[in-house]
């Protein structure tokens, strides 16, 4: 099976770093000398296995995304430990944008677990909404620290009911839900649970078993061919006359490409026939979405970094003329609020254009999921925003394509990443 790239997210101190540490230790992915370096008062501090920054270790929090790797007999894994603090939501969004799955941790002891109508923490809701907005294919809820409550069966029942209700209201599909104790390792790698196999009344698989069976993000091969040009390489052999003398390198965003296909260059509109398709190792072969490729055309046309090669107009599902106005959902990550009239750089593929905020249509209330009237988006808010582009872009709705439907807004003065944009 292909490697699964997943992130852990949720509110502050829900045990995300500890859970990853438990996965690494119990799957024997940590060397003994590394374990010896994270001992505190004679016990292993599992969170220190992922919290690598000195500020993280001093404060006991996760600030940046930390990636760790491990494998079982069934598959390989890449884990992203995303921060839970609201001010680091931008880092969590970055990790989620390329993830195949998200494990949302819920801390049972922070909730009124004995109340059948308990309220979830705002950051739990926010992270769940964000991973759903970013089209992370599989969302798993792991209810942590149930070993520390008086009645774990009742707590798991009430919290799982609250999560199910929230997911239904938000349109989130839950791939799985599992009670865990990251500290003790219960239901993480095995369901032995210190001779309590039905702990919390749960008889399903362990979290690791669930992750082993989750699918990876499918390549977008059902969408017409599109290819953002990242690098232009000139052939050293100047005697070639039957084809162009440059190779256009990048990653196939959608569809597939093979010699003989006619492509259209965006934004120039010129067309040419594909003469060769090279793999990352320069072997001639057709390529599909998600794979790197070098494309050689049958003649010289003006193509630069940032341009797109698209399926010929008659075949394309996108408009080769592009769009100058976009209706979007934005997860705002800048410290300065998003207001109408501001101009940002928008990055789409490898193409940069100026984007002006025309209107903030509404802001999403993460507690009620209501769309509220708003004139701005404060830091870490999510809202519906209309953008006007200085130059057209070829886009698709994000629900149809994670590549063509996503942009990043960058502040023109500070060059900070300001927002994650999802096209409607």
Topology (elements, then pairings):
Elements: E1 4-10, H1 16-26, H2 32-36, E2 39-40, E3 43-44, H3 54-59, E4 66-71, E5 76-81, H4 89-96, E6 101-107, H5 122-133, E7 138-144, H6 152-170, E8 174-179, H7 207-213, E9 226-234, E10 246-251, E11 256-257, E12 262-266, E13 271-278, E14 287-288, E15 292-297, E16 308-311, E17 323-332, E18 338-339, E19 343-348, E20 351-364, E21 371-372, E22 376-377, E23 382-393, E24 406-411, E25 417-423
Parallel strand pairs: 1-5, 1-6, 6-7, 7-8
Antiparallel strand pairs: 2-3, 4-5, 9-10, 9-16, 10-15, 11-14, 12-13, 12-16, 13-15, 17-23, 17-25, 18-22, 19-20, 19-24, 20-21, 20-23, 24-25
So what's the overall shape?
globular
Number of strands: 25
Radius of gyration: 24 Å
The spatial strand order of the largest sheet comes to 4-5-1-6-7-8
Strand content: 25-35%
Short description:
The protein has helices at about 15-25, 30-35, 55-60, 90-95, 120-135, 150-170, 205-215; strands at about 5-10, 40, 45, 65-70, 75-80, 100-105, 140-145, 175-180, 225-235, 245-250, 255, 260-265, 270-280, 285-290, 290-295, 310, 325-330, 340, 345-350, 350-365, 370, 375, 380-395, 405-410, 415-424.
Walk me through the structure:
The chain is of the alpha+beta class. 16% of the residues lie in helices and 34% in strands. It contains seven helices and 25 strands. It has helices spanning 16-26, 32-36, 54-59, 89-96, 122-133, 152-170, 207-213, and strands spanning 4-10, 39-40, 43-44, 66-71, 76-81, 101-107, 138-144, 174-179, 226-234, 246-251, 256-257, 262-266, 271-278, 287-288, 292-297, 308-311, 323-332, 338-339, 343-348, 351-364, 371-372, 376-377, 382-393, 406-411, 417-423. The chain has a six-stranded mixed β-sheet, with helices on both faces. The chain has a six-stranded antiparallel barrel with strand order 9-10-15-13-12-16. Strand 6 (101-107), helix 5 (122-133) and strand 7 form a beta-alpha-beta unit. It is globular and about 75 Å long. Residues 52-64 have low confidence and may be disordered.
């Amino acid at each position: 099976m292909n490697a699964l790239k997943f992130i852990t997210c949720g509110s502050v101190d829900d045990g995300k770093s500890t859970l990853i540490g438990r996965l690494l230790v119990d799957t024997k992915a940590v060397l003994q000398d590394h374990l010896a370096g994270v001992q505190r008062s004679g016990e292993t501090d599992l969170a220190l296995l992922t919290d690598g920054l000195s500020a993280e270790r001093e404060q006991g929090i996760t600030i940046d995304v930390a990636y760790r790797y491990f494998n079982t007999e069934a598959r390989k894994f890449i884990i992203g430990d995303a921060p839970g603090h609201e001010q680091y939501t931008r880092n969590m969004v970055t990790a989620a944008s390329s993830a195949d799955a998200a494990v949302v941790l819920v801390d049972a002891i922070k909730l009124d677990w004995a109340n059948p109508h308990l309220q979830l923490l705002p950051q739990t809701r926010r992270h769940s909404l964000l991973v759903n907005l970013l089209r992370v294919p599989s969302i798993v809820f792991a209810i942590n620290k149930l070993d520390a409550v008086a009645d774990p069966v009742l707590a798991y029942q009430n919290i799982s009911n609250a999560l199910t209700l929230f997911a239904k209201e938000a349109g989130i599909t839950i791939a799985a839900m599992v009670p865990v104790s990251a500290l003790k390792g219960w239901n993480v790698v095995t369901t032995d649970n210190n001779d309590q196999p039905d702990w919390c009344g749960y008889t399903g698989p362990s979290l690791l078993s669930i992750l082993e069976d989750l699918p990876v993000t499918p390549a977008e091969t059902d969408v017409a061919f599109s290819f953002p040009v990242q690098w232009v390489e000139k052939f050293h052999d100047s005697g070639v006359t039957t084809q162009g003398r440059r190779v256009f390198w990048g990653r196939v965003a959608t569809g597939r490409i093979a010699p003989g296909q006619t492509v259209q260059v965006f934004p120039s509109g010129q067309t040419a026939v594909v003469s060769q398709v090279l793999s990352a190792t320069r072997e001639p072969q057709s390529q599909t979405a998600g794979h790197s490729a070098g494309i050689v055309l049958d003649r010289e046309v003006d193509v630069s970094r940032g341009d797109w090669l698209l399926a010929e107009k008659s075949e394309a599902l996108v408009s080769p003329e592009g769009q100058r106005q976009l209706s979007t959902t934005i997860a705002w990550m800048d410290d300065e609020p998003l207001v109408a009239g501001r101009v940002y750089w928008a990055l789409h593929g490898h193409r940069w254009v100026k984007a002006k905020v025309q209107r903030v249509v509404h802001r999403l209330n993460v507690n009620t999921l209501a769309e509220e009237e708003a004139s701005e988006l404060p830091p870490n808010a999510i809202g519906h925003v209309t953008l006007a582009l200085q130059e057209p872009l070829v886009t698709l709705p994000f629900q149809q394509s994670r590549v063509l439907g996503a942009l990043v807004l960058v502040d023109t003065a500070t060059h900070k990443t300001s927002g994650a944009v999802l096209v409607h």
